[in-house]
Write a structure and sequence with these properties.
The protein is an alpha+beta fold and 618 residues long. It has helices at residues 2-21, 49-85, 87-102, 104-125, 130-134, 144-198, 229-267, 271-293, 313-327, 337-340, 347-357, 367-417, 422-457, 497-500, 528-544, 582-602, and strands at 43-44, 47-48, 465-468, 471-478, 482-487, 492-496, 505-507, 515-523, 556-561, 566-574, 614-617. The two termini are 69 Å apart. Keywords: Calcium, Membrane, Transmembrane, Transmembrane helix.
């Protein structure tokens, strides 16, 4: 419709005016002349306004035709692949076509420049118009319409190179985001879905499943009084009523809007029906494109829909406490998979949700375990969002650098198109660039190394606990050139990426189960029976603490120290999980060390003087 309206305005302003008051249809003798020999006093550059209106109308129409065609071609192509080869190839094709959809407007403008150039050549340059002959056209002379053609060609080439640069940037960013964050975002959304279903337990009408659980002494956590059935029954019920009312109001409004549209359609006739049809098709196309773009992992708010996951550690602890109190059966101390079943469609789905909380695969979930998992999800969501924002900022910087290179290439090409003395320009540019390499050469090298380190190596993300040269840091932010790290004492360290790229970096968050070695010195007269007694006592402790430790213990005698009358022994603390939450790691280690001290005392194993334990992690 915009194309039709625009064409009408252009033709009325230029075409009809020239046809009515300017075009000369006859020669000096009064004989009719052919269209190619028409001339007019109403002209721009000796080209009649009618000719201008025809070209502008055709170019204007080509713009909207190209916009519409290129918007439906990806969907048609993807559907054809799906019908011919199956849904898998349809999805794969959709991933590649997403690049096209993201750059849809830029590609449309590029194609429009190309078509406008072809139209100008075929409509203005090639035909032997009389108004051109009146200019005294000479094949060896360049006239203004030749320069217009060169300008259109330069616009096309420049836009094509610009689209190529944007495509390279999009490919780098998309592949990086998929490799780095796709699985983490998927897991966060899965966790959010589980929390949404379990949140039903916070309403007063909770499914009963106490009969499926063994009885025992109940030790529920104290409720925060905010979200538990006892603390927020009225609030939950009110929220439910408000939600139902909102849904009802929305459905009523939607029904009324549908009725209004139907009434308008009955009245629509002629061109109105055509306009409605085109508008509807365009809206469907835009909706499809929007849905496809949501699959591209470039959105800094990719987890904004995961609203059930708390935004702070305090809220996470409160939600975990309330969920545990709402889900745990009467007389039980832990949650089992049967407690999840009433809130999921099948037992299999309930087991999958249960495993998200049961990190140590013990078959039950303790209050502390649930609190730790929900807190981890909250921290993970925050870290992902901050990482994506930082990386997007780095991608923008990369885009600017590539854009500067493309602009320089476009400058050279345009100079060649207009036959400008490029050599003299390049001499001047070289005179500036060569000395600059001595000033900026190191910066350019450092920037290139940082880009490789950030996008290719990618050793860490925001929120990760890492160790550099044996010192632990938490990653606070990332950019093209620097990474901001925070030490355990709270001090911020600004580390150049070019320096970090040459360091050995331990990433704790990405690690699996971790362990550490503790070296102790025991008395030289310690017997094998005493060591066996120590091992039995520690295995009993580890079985009782199976949620936190692997049940494995051994004492390895590393060295006999005759001068100190001692045996240097090594024991290994096998943690379940990594040390990303350093506070939990310290608490687990303290419990192990106290248990080891008590076991040594009970096994009557003595220690030589000044035998402080040593530790080494791995």
């Amino acid at each position: 419709m915009r194309a039709i309206v625009g064409d009408a305005v252009i033709f009325v302003v230029f075409g009809i005016t020239d046809l009515s008051f300017g075009i000369r249809y006859t020669d000096d003798k009064g004989d009719a002349v052919s269209f190619i020999n028409w001339t007019s006093p109403l002209q721009i550059g000796n080209m009649p306004l009618l000719m201008w209106s025809i070209y502008i109308m055709a170019s204007w129409t080509l713009h909207f035709a190209t916009l519409f065609v290129l918007s439906i071609v990806p969907n048609i192509l993807q559907r054809v692949f799906g019908l011919a080869l199956g849904s898998y190839y349809e999805e794969r094709m959709g991933e590649y076509l997403n690049y096209f959809r993201v750059l849809h407007k830029r590609i449309t403008f590029t194609m429009w420049n190309l078509l406008s150039n072809v139209l100008w050549t075929s409509f203005v340059i090639v035909p032997d118009w009389k108004w051109k002959r009146d200019l005294g056209e000479n094949p060896d002379t360049w006239y203004w319409y030749h320069y217009v053609s060169k300008v259109l060609l330069s616009l096309f080439i420049g836009q094509a190179l610009w689209v190529g640069e944007k495509l390279v940037t999009e490919i780098i960013a998309t592949l990086f985001f998929r490799r780095a964050y796709k699985d983490r975002i998927k897991l966060s959304k899965q966790a959010n879905s589980v929390l949404e279903k379990l949140a039903v337990s916070l309403t007063p009408r909770r499914p009963s499943h106490a009969a499926t659980r063994p009885s025992g002494s109940a030790t529920p956590l104290p409720s925060s009084g905010i979200n538990t059935p006892r603390g927020s029954a009225a609030a939950a019920a009110a929220a439910g009523r408000n939600a139902s009312a909102s849904v009802t109001d929305f459905e009523s409004a939607a029904a009324e809007a549908t009725a209004n549209v139907a009434a308008k359609k009955k009245k629509a006739t002629g061109i109105t029906r055509v306009g409605n049809f085109i508008s509807k098709r365009a809206q469907i196309t835009l909706n499809t494109v929007a849905a496809e773009l949501n699959n591209v992992i470039l959105d800094p708010n990719a987890l904004s829909s995961a609203s059930t996951i708390p935004k702070s550690q305090t809220a996470a602890h409160a939600l975990a406490r309330d969920l545990f109190n709402a889900l745990v059966a009467d007389g039980a101390d832990e949650l089992v998979v049967e407690d999840f079943e009433p809130y999921f469609g099948s037992r299999h789905e309930a087991k999958r949700a249960f495993k998200l909380f049961d990190k140590n695969a013990s078959g039950d979930i303790s209050p502390l375990e649930m609190k730790a998992v929900v807190a981890t999800w909250a921290q993970e969501k925050e870290d992902i969002e901050h990482s994506i924002k930082d990386i997007r900022s780095a991608v923008r910087s990369l885009d600017w650098m590539l854009g500067a290179v493309v602009m320089f290439i476009i400058f050279l090409i345009v100079c060649n198109i207009f036959q400008l003395p490029v050599a003299s320009y390049m001499s001047a540019v070289a005179a500036v660039l060569v000395p600059s390499t001595f000033v900026f050469g190191g910066t350019l090298k450092e920037t290139f190394e940082s880009i490789i380190f950030l996008f290719i190596s990618h050793f860490y993300d925001v929120g990760d606990l890492i160790a550099v040269d044996g010192v632990y840091f938490t990653v606070k932010s990332m950019s093209i050139l620097n990474t901001t790290l925070q030490r355990g004492d709270g001090k911020l360290v600004y580390a150049p990426n070019s320096v970090l790229s040459h360091k050995m970096i331990d990433n704790v968050r990405r690690s699996g189960h971790m362990s550490e070695d503790v070296t102790i010195k025991i008395a030289l007269d310690t017997t094998e029976a005493q060591l066996d007694d120590l091992r039995d006592k520690m295995l009993a402790f580890l079985e009782a603490e199976a949620r936190e430790f692997h049940v494995a213990f051994a004492v390895v005698i590393k060295e006999v120290l005759l001068a100190e009358r001692a045996l240097r022994c090594q024991v290994t603390i096998s943690h379940k999980g990594n040390w990303q939450p350093m506070g939990k790691r310290a608490a687990r280690r303290n419990r192990f060390m106290f248990a080891l001290k008590q076991a040594l005392v009970e096994a009557k194993i003595g220690c030589p003087d000044s035998a402080a334990p040593e530790s080494a992690e791995h």
